From TrEMBL:
GO terms for molecular function: metal ion binding; oxidoreductase activity. It comes from Hyaloscypha hepaticicola. Residues 193-297 form the Fe2OG dioxygenase domain. The lineage of its organism: Eukaryota, Fungi, Dikarya, Ascomycota, Pezizomycotina. Belongs to the iron/ascorbate-dependent oxidoreductase family. This is Clavaminate synthase-like protein. Pfam families: 2OG-FeII_Oxy (PF03171), DIOX_N (PF14226).
């Protein structure tokens, strides 16, 4: 396979093979950032709320707004930076693998996580860059020169994401009948949290032995902003066992909700199961890279129902979650899938999120 492996640094989005037209895909609603910004009371906000309640995934059209266009431009630069990072020698990247110390940030090599309860290994490499580190909320972790030389750029990318997230958070809290700053007030960039940028790289896989690159999961935190150029992301359609691809759309981010939003809303909002497999059709011969920004509540925030609005109108449902802190929730979920700490089916199930118990 190595001989046919294309060099991703020499390929822009427009020269990549097309996403096939003849495979089942998830029909994600497209929300316009421009419309959300234009007024606080137009139909776009209702569409966002309904996407957040039903699939928990939607396209966010970033075009035609200052912050959205900035994110797209910065993402182009970060795709180049990502190429540089993943092209470093394996021994250099391994210096930044801190999993044995239970540190979530830094490098994870191929096969260092499990994708199921049987212990099957993953097929991608990752690099997680902490928001707290880049914004100097905490001391910096050791990082390769390609990263340290670009700290200011990464800070600016984090700020652009934060600005777009603030718009989404205000819309969702208003739709829930809560004060507009409810979510923003527990996601302050200056407070310690698990927000982070993630670089992902998955090499092409031999057709005869293809398997899941990134195991099924719900995201741990609040909202995730994902920039994909190739297919490979799949969502499980709610109430079924069926997995379908999400087609990347130029100019749009794919946004999804994580478990914290399910907990804050008492299950009104949904964080859906997803995974990454080989890209479809001819795209399977390419190196797949993706750029993700994960927002998470401040570490000290307790993950439980908020008071007020539609959340108060819910019945008691199941017994309310006892209220673990975000820090504890993240630690449990991070550790559960690392090969260093995997102990079989039970530890896999122990690492699960709200998919195991959707209404809280
Ligand atoms: O690469 C992707 O498309 C999705 C990655 C993902 O789900 C994650 O990193 O949590
Ligand atoms: Fe995810």
């Amino acid at each position: 396979m190595a001989s046919t492996l294309s060099n991703p640094s020499s390929r822009s989005g427009s020269t990549l093979p097309p996403f096939p037209d003849d495979i089942p895909i998830a029909s994600l609603v497209t929300i316009s950032l421009r419309e959300l910004e234009r007024s606080t009371s137009n139909l776009e906000h209702e569409d966002l709320f309904s996407a957040a309640k039903s699939l928990g995934f939607f396209y966010l059209n970033l075009q035609g707004t200052t912050e959205g266009e900035k994110l797209l431009k910065q993402a182009d630069t970060l795709f180049d930076l990502m190429n540089k990072f993943f092209s470093l020698p394996a021994e250099e990247k391994a210096k930044y693998d801190f999993a044995a110390k239970k540190i979530y940030y830094g490098y994870k090599g191929i096969g260092k996580e499990v994708v199921d309860g049987k212990g099957t290994r993953d097929k991608n490499e990752l690099y997680n860059i902490s928001k707290d580190d880049i914004l100097s909320v905490t001391d910096p972790l050791p990082a390769p020169a390609v990263i340290t030389a670009n700290r200011a750029f990464l800070a600016s990318y984090i700020n652009t994401n934060t600005s777009i997230l603030t718009t989404l958070f205000a819309s969702l809290s208003t739709s829930l009948g809560l004060p507009p700053d409810t979510f923003a007030s527990i996601h302050k960039p200056t407070a310690s949290s698990g927000c982070h940028v993630r670089f992902i790289s998955a090499p092409p896989q031999e057709a005869s032995t293809r398997s899941t690159a990134l195991g099924e999961h719900t995201d741990f935190g609040s909202l995730t902003i994902l920039l994909n150029r190739l297919g490979g992301l799949q969502v499980q359609l709610p109430g079924t066992d069926e997995w379908v691809y999400v087609r990347p759309v130029p100019g749009c981010a794919i946004v999804n909700l994580g478990d914290a939003m399910v907990k804050f809303s008492g299950g009104i909002l949904r964080s859906n199961l997803h995974r990454v497999v080989s890209p479809p059709g001819e795209q399977a011969n390419e190196v797949r890279r993706s750029l993700v920004y994960f927002s998470r509540p401040e570490h000290d925030v307790v993950l439980t129902r908020l008071r007020g609005g539609l959340v108060d109108e819910l019945g008691q449902g199941e017994v309310e979650d006892g209220g673990v802190s975000t820090r504890e929730w993240l630690a449990r979920r991070h550790i559960g899938r690392k090969v260093e700490f995997f102990k079989g089916k039970e530890s896999w199930e122990g690492s699960m999120g709200t998919e195991a118990r959707p209404r809280l």
